[in-house]
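Running co-folding for manganese (II) ion.
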Amino acid sequence: GALCFLDHFGPVDVVTGAGMRVGPHPHIGLQTVSWLLQGEILHRDSLGYVQHIRPGQLNLMTAGRGIAHSEESPAGRPSGLHGAQLWIALPEPQRHCDPAFDHYADLPLMTHDGLRITLLAGEALGERSPAKIHSPLVGLDLAADGPVTVTLPLRAEFEYGALVLEGEVGVGGEALAPGTLLYLDRGRSVLPLRTTGAARMLLLGGEPFAEDILMWWNFVGRSKDEIVQVTRDWNAGRHFGEVRGYDGARLVAPLPPWTT
Ligand code: MN
């Protein structure tokens, strides 16, 4: 679907050292979805939002025409950090929209044949996530506390990606462990899942994105000229506003290789 990037980070010990420190940096043309299994992150952005995120909560940042933010391990944090950040490309009608930030402390929780399911985005099993998205897609966190054999309904018009975060899961007959994203093409109406012990995974899906996107650094655009322009804007301190309160340097945007 419109999901164009996925970063699975941790589990890592952040009790010593500085922990996560991602200085102020810009985004355009996408939404970032932050989801934690363990730990805590403090988000600050150029709209003025300062938001802690903890496991079970969702941060959804809509960059639209431009936003800047920082992400850091807060003082007094738990010792471990483990999570994922997904990027969703915005379709043409929305990609120049005003930037926005939403924090969802409560998401739909379901159980399905022993599997605990949190609905991050979209609709599944009769529930709908409150997360504001702009194209047909779904995001599910699936948790097993022990051996589980289950069949999940899929939407045949969606393609899917499965990413195991903890443990091992048999996904449609493939043994999947952390570090590998399994891609499933359209045309499936069910997905058999099997675990032999505790496991955690993300199941993500959506209608294939019809637009060609151009990704460079933290930008999702359509043309090289557009990417060069926002790179120069950010490095000159234009367009994106300012992130206040982060104790460190803003990131410098690398010039794309095609820049003349
Ligand atoms: Mn970011």
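Result summary
Residues 25, 27, 32, 69, 218 surround manganese (II) ion (CB under 6 Å).
The chain is about 5% helix and 50% strand.
Job closed.
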